[in-house]
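Sequence in, structure out. First:
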Amino acid sequence: LSRLDQPEDYLLGSVKGECNYHFKFRLEGGGYFQTGVLVASAESTPGGLPVPLKCKWKRRVGDLPVEIPGVTSNMYQISADDVGTDISVEAQPADMDDGHHGLVVGEIGPFELDPATRRSLDNALGLGGSRFTVMQSKLPGEPTSGRQDLVIQVSTEGVRVAGVQGAGYAGQGRDGRDVYAEYATDYPRVIIHPLDTTKFQLVMSESKTFHLIALSRTARDLIALTIRCFHAKKYLSSANILQNLLPVQPTTAGDTPAAAHTKTARLDSCIVLERLAKELNRAMQQKEVSEKVLRNTN
């Protein structure tokens, strides 16, 4: 369905499939942002009794649908994992004995960052890092003693987890120092909890994982995206990106000098365009910082 002419309190997704009940797929939260909530609902007839559903949620990255594990209810909390993707739900009656049947599929997206989180992410990237205060999450069977606030320090080179006061804490390494992980192929990485809007895991190595709670839902998304952005910039070099996006075309025997020159000129134009885009982003970041200083001064 079109994004226009929708009620202000929710947006409707597209629905397909055949069933003998009334199905609705809506996005609550005021926009196509990662702060919203998706709700799949059904009624025996429009305005009639509700029909319980069992759902399977998927995230579509390009043309590839990927199932979202651990979510079977009729509601899904959108997160940083869903930025740039479409979300779909496969729903059917939870109890076929009630006389309702049929499988329906709802889809909506793509989703983007809310403006406030986007500005914070741009500032972190422009400054070359950021610090985030989090709490350790108590796992089943663990004592409550020793759980305290931690600080995640994200830089261009890696991620460090430290105590707020620099004192000992349950997440320190065996030698008593802070836990630090440079960006590598698999680490560090952030795993967002599919049900709780503030919980996440920070996997620093094969043997060290932090179970953490962010101060808010958007704070958790900002932590995840900041680490992922710096990770991508560190691990994927410009040469690798150019090689994948702009592979070198070997000159064949049939190529004329003019054709070879055209290919070279096209590559040069792409490189110049990339540099101009970086300069534009840098100028926009400086403009936002200047405006913030002016607002604080006034």
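Second:
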Amino acid sequence: GSSWLQEVSISHPFVKVQFELGFDARDYALNCMQCHRPDVPNFKDMSKIPPRVHPPGACGQSVFGKAHSYEQMREAGAVYGARIIIILRLHVAATCISSWLHFKKHTKDIVTWTPDEFHGQLLKATNDNEYLMAFPGKSLVPSFVVFYEDMVRHPGDTFYEMQKFLRVPLIRRDDLDRLHKKASTKPSIYYLQHLEGVQKKETELNSPFKDMVTDPKWDDNAPVEETFRRICAVHPDTKARWRGGSCGDWTGLI
């Protein structure tokens, strides 16, 4: 999901993103006036990125959530007017499996965690999500939350609302609704070698992950709006929005 989001973002001529570099708060990294605009291929459609506009209307960095603190983001917001885009995959079982396949893909094509090991990974992924969900409220930085499950169903609308949040000229990309990753359409849970054992364990525990590992269509009913309301409840001044709305009266357009 993060790769798709990055590539769609840089397809906008006013947006520049540095990919997966540790958070860099130095002036030349966050100041759009000094932001370099290399011409790189977009391997999703093998075409060149549209002509660049300089300085860009929005420039940013793609970083991992645990790599920085709420305080760092609050400072970046105060000094540079920074805004945060957060991507969350609510199906944490799929997150765990995707991570395994990403880092082990050259040696493994099946996830070999035991049911106990997999349960531990589910708890860790849930904690990581909780950490990210607290960013809008605890950093008090304007935030746009992208839910993976919602982005897959509504890619064009997600991109459009994200542009409004970044305050860049609005463009429509009709091809986004036809954009698919070059990956198997098989549900993630079917990559688990010990799927039956995992399903039995989560059912016996009556854990919150039970439906994720037994229902291959869990994504279709992911609790997106409910989760966003939880994000808004963290702090009364939370400045956050997602494709379907915002916290309180804050629109993210000011």
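Remark: Residues 37-51 have pLDDT under 50 and may be disordered.
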